[in-house]
């Protein structure tokens, strides 16, 4: 006679053991015959991070039953990995087409002077603003596609976040490296709406916007959702249009009055070609250094000085200096 070994808790749940027949089978549910799936790379990394943090990762008999509920819970910010000990600067677009990729590159290159910095993008690969920003492509590492741009490691997702989840920041050779993280607007909107811990372990937030009335209005909504330190990179002319100044909300006006708004000039060539492996325009690089001086005050801002014209005053002897 062949016997079937049932899970102990399923017998208790049925209340009748083997005598319950079909009723006990329905009480046990399909989980009694489910096959445990192998752990993914990201789940194994999460388990390692939990062990380092002192958490318990013992096998749970109810893992299959609770995995669905956990999947729909609040998302975990990927920069809260215990192995990431460096600073994190989050660059967010205040609206579509806000120039977040350009600002992220300029800021990361400025911060890389004197420290190790990596540039990480959480965006759909088909909509990546850093697609051609690397001067050298170094292949894929897990869920990441790695590139090199000067002193920067540039990381882009291989698959969309919806299919692969939001992986932790890439592992580097220095755990104290800084990470400039660019997150797409749909992704960060979902994170901010579902969890109050999205900005945990983020040292600074930089929000990018263009100087148009619809743009600053949309940016104001994002600024209201951020309670911590925040700076604004405003892409547009040196003098703000009057209509834009009138359309600014209280949060943006406050940041502008405190000197936390940096103007980023719009370069025609860059606007046409997009980011490439070439150097950024000098004016955009200067804006990145200004942002870096706010984010990391220990690094002095490097201002560009125009060369002064030689004096043409005449000496008493009549010669020209």
- The strand count comes to 9
On the 0 to 100 scale, the average pLDDT is 75
Order of helices and strands: HHHHEHEEEEHEHEHEHHEHH
Strand line-up of the largest beta sheet: 3-4-5-2-6-1-7-8-9
CATH evolutionary superfamily of the domain at 78-295 = P-loop containing nucleotide triphosphate hydrolases
Can you tell me the CATH architecture of the domain at 78-295?
3-Layer(aba) Sandwich
How much helicity do the residues have?
A: 25-40%
- The name CATH uses for the topology of the domain at 78-295 is Rossmann fold
CATH classification, class level of the domain at 78-295: Alpha Beta
Shape: globular
Q: What Rg, in angstroms, do the CA atoms define?
A: 27 Å
| Count of helical regions | 12
- Unreliably modeled segments: 1-34, 56-74, 299-321
Label the structural class: alpha/beta
Approximate strand percentage: 15-25%
Distance between the termini: 114 Å
Largest sheet: 9 strands, mixed
Give a description of the structure.
The chain is globular and about 60 Å long. With 321 residues, the protein is an alpha/beta fold. It has a domain of 218 residues: P-loop containing nucleotide triphosphate hydrolases (Rossmann fold). The N terminus and C terminus are likely disordered. The chain has a 9-stranded mixed sheet with strand order 3-4-5-2-6-1-7-8-9, with helices on both faces.
